[in-house]
Amino acid sequence: MTASTAMLLPVAALVEHPWRLPVPSFGVVASMLAIAALSTALAYVLYFRILATAGATNLLLVTFLIPVSALILGTLVLGEPLVASQLLGMALIGLGLAAIGGRVPRWLAGRLGRWNWRMANSE
What we know:
By secondary structure, this protein is mostly helical. Helices cover about 80% and strands about 0% of the residues. α4 (about 65-80) packs antiparallel against α5.
């Protein structure tokens, strides 16, 4: 992020001419710093903590939830309609995450194992 900021700073200065803009108030500067510190820095800390504990595969599964959260927020905040194809897509994403995550197959294997054990012992 630092390198991209350093590369884009001259371009932004040439295009936007920031010296012609009014000086932002203390509240604006404080808000920008708070967003940078809380959102960006906290997100990176959480990202690398989850990466260390859950692994890269599980961490990247979260990206499947981005369209789901966008649809839900669009419906709740913006009042956008939620149609059947979107619900079907969210259900497919949920099923895919459940299958990839491994919890459902392990749960099914445990249930089938107990069922097989009961069937073998009932005879």
